[in-house]
Amino acid sequence: MREQTYRPLLMYTIDMSMVEEFQFFCQVIKDESPSSTARLGYYEMMMWLNFNDEENIQGVCDYIAKNDGEDTFDLRESYLLALCESERKENILEVLEIMDIKKLSSVDSVAKIFQALGRLSLEPVAEKLLFDYKISRIPLQFVQSFCWIHVKLGRNKHPNSYKISIH
What is the model's pTM? Predict the structure, then answer.
């Protein structure tokens, strides 16, 4: 089952605070398409964020911290991407300290993290991550696109305040 099929339904149940229905549909999706399990983590976190459920949000962050194996990376990535859509700086920073974002599944995922860092005015963290990318020999075009996203977002908040160079 493709995400474009179940996304509207899950987002509706989240928006309408229908927890039991959300859990029911997630189970159906997992049963029909086990490969969707990791991506469903995104929606689970979005639900807890929508309800501002501190206990479950912290529970997910604890899960990320305790389960750092390759077999759980996709699920943890989905949780992180949902967190990046929130204003929860502390949780985002906590997860970024644990996860190696150089292993994320796509450039789009990394871009979403840098967008969140720019939006939340977490420039020192973004600069550290850019430096990590630079020294890990990630292809230059990826690093440059992250810089562009970060600089563009930063300039919207603080004109003429960024001078990032990649050599």
Answer: 0.80
